[in-house]
Design a protein that fits this description.
With 292 residues, the protein is an alpha+beta fold. The protein contains ten helices and twelve strands. Helix content is 38%, strand content 15%. Strands 5-7-6 form a three-stranded mixed beta sheet.
Length: 292
């Protein structure tokens, strides 16, 4: 296993600062709250970083970047991976910008870093053989650095080709996708959520749009459940708020006011008839909410 101090040295961190970091993490202790609410005895922690420490995210990024760089190098040296690797077309390298040819290392680096966010990553391959080889390299490299790929949280998905109906019969379903890598076997799924987005085997967006619209509507209803659950809501709503002259509690009423010149005339006549029933000299203060 490669010690983390060696990883920090590769990143160019001075030896004196590495020693300070090592002494800062030596002797870390922790205890766990158990099911009955009691705390366990103190025990020493020999792996990981301090929880809640401002230095922890930086150390993780430096360490994980070194791990991925080794993965990128192993990918670029494997012919099976290079033949089946799929990378994004965005974020062209400086070599391409200058007119030079993109190297296999640049192409692999663009593919790996383009599907990465924190410790959540994805790899795309054109063949099952290439995907199995990629996962084997990832599991082996992670093991060299003392990390473990979660077998339960890792899933495979087979993207189906767009079907153009030429006959009345439906195409036969593809065979199951079985991926095994370094003793791990990954379950196949038809859809999964990656970085908040729903990815499915057909590569379409209706379910994703429906999911997001339902979430937005639920959030909107949270601000006015009584208002948005009305069976027949008017096109325009006017909220009238009475402000009493004294310190009594103000009452809020909602009225449906007609719009246009006729509406202004009716409001004027109605206001004139109820002149003596005003609560104080301030009268009614109108705040309009227009929903289009």
């Amino acid at each position: 296993m490669i010690p983390y101090m060696e990883v920090l040295a590769r990143a160019g961190i001075p030896a004196k600062l590495i020693e300070v970091i090592r002494q800062f993490h030596d002797g870390m202790r922790a205890r766990v709250r158990m099911d009955d609410g009691e705390l366990s005895d103190w025990f020493f922690m020999t792996q990981g970083v301090r929880q809640g420490c401002v230095l922890s995210p930086l150390l993780f990024n430096i360490f994980f970047a070194e791990v991925l760089e080794v993965v990128v190098i192993r990918f670029s040296e494997d012919d099976v991976v290079l033949r089946s690797l799929v990378c994004l077309e965005e974020g062209k390298t400086e070599t391409e910008a200058g007119g030079g040819e993109e190297t296999p290392l640049d192409r692999v680096r663009r593919a790996v870093w383009g599907m990465l966010y924190a410790d959540d990553a994805g790899v795309v391959s054109r063949s099952a053989e290439g995907l199995a080889r990629m996962m084997t390299i990832i599991v082996e490299v992670f093991g060299e650095f003392g990390l473990t790929v979660s077998e339960k949280k890792t899933e495979t998905l087979l993207m189906r080709a767009k079907y153009k109906p030429t006959t009345t019969s439906q195409p036969a379903p593809p065979p199951p996708l079985t991926i095994e890598a370094a003793g791990q076997k990954y379950a196949q799924t038809t859809e999964f959520r990656y970085l908040g987005g729903l990815v499915n085997e057909h590569g379409d967006l209706p379910r994703e749009i429906s999911y997001r619209s339902r979430g937005a509507w639920a959030c909107l209803r949270g601000y006015g459940r009584d208002l948005f659950d009305r069976p027949q809501a008017p096109f325009r709503l006017k909220i009238l708020k009475k402000r009493p002259a004294d310190n009594e509690r103000s009452n809020e009423t909602t009225s449906h006011q007609p719009v246009g010149r006729e509406g202004r005339r009716r409001r004027t006549r109605r206001r004139g008839k109820k002149q003596t029933r005003r609560d104080g000299p301030s009268g009614a203060i109108r705040a309009g909410l227009n929903f289009f």
